[in-house]
Each structure stands twice: as structure tokens, then as C-alpha cells.
Amino acid sequence: MPPVGGVLEGSVRIGALPLSRTRLLPAAISAFLAHHPGIMVMTNESPYESLVSDMRAGHIDFIIGALRQDEELPDLSCEALFEEDMLILLRNEHPLLRHPDPLSQLAAAQWVLPRSNAPARRLLERAFLTLGLPLPQPTVETGDAAMVRGLLRDSDMLAAVSASQMCFEIDNGLLTVLPVQLPDTTRRIGLTFRAGSLPSPATQALLSFIQRQVAQG
């Protein structure tokens, strides 16, 4: 809806993928609504394929999260916001933190992994191949951050995640990053739109707050 007397009204509908939900999107929405309290913001946390279908049908204004690096669709346009690598998380005081060669123990570890068709899973498997290690075998498959957190805190399992997905747990010392680098796991985090679409004034305003939040780190 166009601004009325300089005040934005209407709604913004967002497809929110996991890597946007922990810090970036909540912070941007909070700042946005402090300036534009008349806007209704709605988020949809469905899988990527469902979000794309909803966006094509006009039910979502944009998608935010990990960009699909191996998928180019002519009716979609993407804008990268930043890049980040995957890392290995485990509980504090995990015995692997005291091991002299933790890399040698990764193949035999119990893993909490993304589902087999998830881009993050393919990146992790590629990293293991680059390191010359057997592929990790999942003890649990899940894409839910709360499930990952609970499993890691109550067991000796490991999880490979992007830093932004579990930033609260890392920043507050609830979980620890294993000092092992995973090569070739860089992911672009950004925005996906319908190609040629013109965002509403409210959507454009929220996008500017998202970009501002990225710039602030």
C-alpha cells in the first residue's frame, strides 16, 4: 500500500530460511517496526522449495537465507548480503576438545547433520572429501536449531552448522566451536526475489533495514 501522509502502511511477507532467523532478520524487523509501527510483518518458515512456489504465486515478497549456489532459475533474482563458512559445534568440555588431533576423530564421531538433500549437507560432504576423510554418518538428521542445541548439550555428538545459525549459543558460551576448518564450505547469504518484480514501499523499507543490519555486523 502506498504511504499515507508519509506513513507506511500494509504488510511485508518474508520467506525466512534458517540462517536468517537467529539474529539478522529479528534485529532488522525490530528496528524496522520501531520506525514503521503501522506495518504488519509475516514470516514463513517453510522449506526452500515451498517458499519459492509461494513467492512465484505472489504470497511472499522475498526470501532471505542461504542462496542456492548450484541453481539458477530465470524467473528468480538473487542479491548476496555476506558470506560465511560452516563450522563444527560441540558441547563445552567435550573430550574431543582435549584430543591432540581432533581431525582424525571426525569420521568416527556421532553427527547431527542436515537432511540428505540440504545444500549444507552437500557442502559438508565435499569438505570431508577434500580432507581425505570418510563421509560423516548421521546419528540424527534435523534442520531445527533448537533440536541441534539440545542434542549437543546432552551428548557427545557433533554438528556442522553455519555460524549465524547458532550465533546465540556460540556468543553466550553455551556451545563451543571445534578448532578444525572445513574447506570449501563458504555459503552466500542473501535475498531472493521474483525477477522483474517491484517491491512495495514497505518491502523496500524493510530491505534497507536488513542491509543496514548486515553493514553493522
UniProtKB/TrEMBL annotation:
Residues 7-213 form the LysR substrate-binding domain. GO terms for cellular component: cytosol. InterPro entries: HTH-type_LysR_regulators, LysR_subst-bd. GO terms for biological process: regulation of DNA-templated transcription. SUPFAM superfamilies: Periplasmic binding protein-like II. Pfam families: LysR_substrate. This is HTH-type transcriptional regulator AbgR. It comes from Raoultella planticola (Klebsiella planticola). The gene is abgR_7.
